[in-house]
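For the sake of clarity, the format in which proteins appear in this thesis is described at this point. Each number in the token line that follows is a code from a learned vocabulary of backbone shapes. One such record is shown here in full, so that the layout can be seen directly:
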Amino acid sequence: MGLSGELALTLLTGILVLVVFALATRFDDWRTYTPLAGGSALGGETGYGHDEKPGGIVRWLTTVDHKDIGILYGVYAIIAFAWGGLAVMLMRFELATPAMDVLGGVGGRAFYNQLLTSHGITMLFLFGTPILAAFSNYFIPLLIGADDMAFPRINAIAFWLLPPGAVLIWAGFFLAPFFDGIAASMTSWTMYPPQAVAQTAAGQDAMSYEYAGRVIASSEIDTTALNAGTDLMLLGLHLTGVSATMGAINFIATIFTERGPDVGWDKLDIFSWTILTQSALILFSFPLLGSALVMLLLDRNFATGFFAVEGGGTILYQHLFWFFGHPEVYILVLPPMGIISYVLPRFSGRKLFGFKFVVYSTLAIGVLSFGVWAHHMFASGIDPRLRAGFMAVSLAIAIPSAVKTFNWITTMWNGNIRLTTPMLFCIGFIGNFIIGGVTGVFLAAVPVDLVLHDTYYVVGHFHYVIMGAIAFAVFAGVYYWFPIVSGRMYQRTLGKAHFWTTMVGTNLTFFAMILLGYGGMPRRYATYNGVTVEGIVGYFTSLHVIATVGAFILLVGQLIWVWNMVQSWLEGPVVGPDPWNLKEDGLPSREFDWHADRLETTLADGGEPAEDEPMTDGGEPVDADDDDATGDE
């Protein structure tokens, strides 16, 4: 890259910084903060000085208020969700036809592999964990009666490690046009060596093709030919791991030491229990990922032999990665289970059935999750006796998940169900989670896994859990708590349209992938026109078209959601202290008690509701004809 290119890149970066600064300074008054905003659930003053905040970008760069940091996590996660979603849409349009017809002019198979890698890492590390941190940061202190997090500044630092982490992970896409020999990583999200150790910007091994088919030794790696985009991605992943670990320590300390005097362990809400268990999993698993990434970086750049055949071997990396990787699945799914367990009873008109069993099953999942990692390695040649042990534990961990599912269904049984948008997403979660769980039980059985391993069946199963369950729980939480965060109510018609498009799109896309797996379609392939079995290309093409149509429906649904959130945040009707009529069912909650105290103090302090947006109470608008602008009552 010449001097002119460097100057152009510097100029563009400067313009971007100025534009972001100008936009941020225009949003001084996104939300109204009162002396209660940083207080406890009872409205007490705190020692953190949240009652007066600077305006504009300075406020967001310097805040240590757990609610502000929760909003920052949420905005960050939505941006990552958009990036990962657009990447997978390009992949799906390519897969709708057997040959390389869509991406052929912009990098072909190499660009497809870059999108594949970016999509997986973005959705898991930049969307999944941060969006859950958004809920936990905002609501855990409110639910347990704490003034703030135990370490507010560490809480802020944990978030601010994430944006540079995302920039590093995506850096290969930004730098490729300006630098020769740099491209986005093509290692897939698992980053298996030897490919991850020796990959060049062209997606090839850093050696001549005469070595193809043989395990790469560290002495054979030409480090001068390595793709720096992969190194940047590994460094970015390391930052996200440090961020998650700092947050986990903070949540554990907060729940143990900052609970209100009336919040004993027997009174701790189910969402806080799941966050506590998640934090323990992060504390024990993320350091393993960090260690594996450091060793991978050393192998790539300093010719060490951790994952070379004469050193630890490539299987060592798989053990380290999956010892983190399978607890990571429960790191992502336990808080959504907590959201469902917390929100679903509110719209069933009764308390959560078997609360203690739900807590015990949460703790059981936390313990068992560290004993199942090698079921990802059944096809790697490990000892059959070890495979049998991991198969048994992998089957056993389905039991506590089933306990939760039966408890959710029993909670709704003979209840006073209100089909609000949050409740629809809770029910959708249960249905999708059953499909994702049952397909996972099949993969836990060694004979079945050996047949279906590395096919689209695995992709369909995994996405039924990630998109079909975790994302549904996230949306349920967003709609349920939107009145507290924004002070307004969303449009119920758009909310239900979002649910149905997401439900239909999810099942079209991922059930088609399960059928592709039964047909033998391998995952991570950009084309499939080389298949020679008669009729199978047509079978694959039909199912890929169905999956692509489903993905497009999913995209439409998420655009509806974004529009609903933005428009309702700016113009939705102002809500009253009990927008969901929780007290009528005898199911009050601490965060809505805090919300009611905040509204009362705002009015006592001189604040008034807007004249054109009358306050609502109990979910009923003053103008009963304005049906679409209020809640789902």
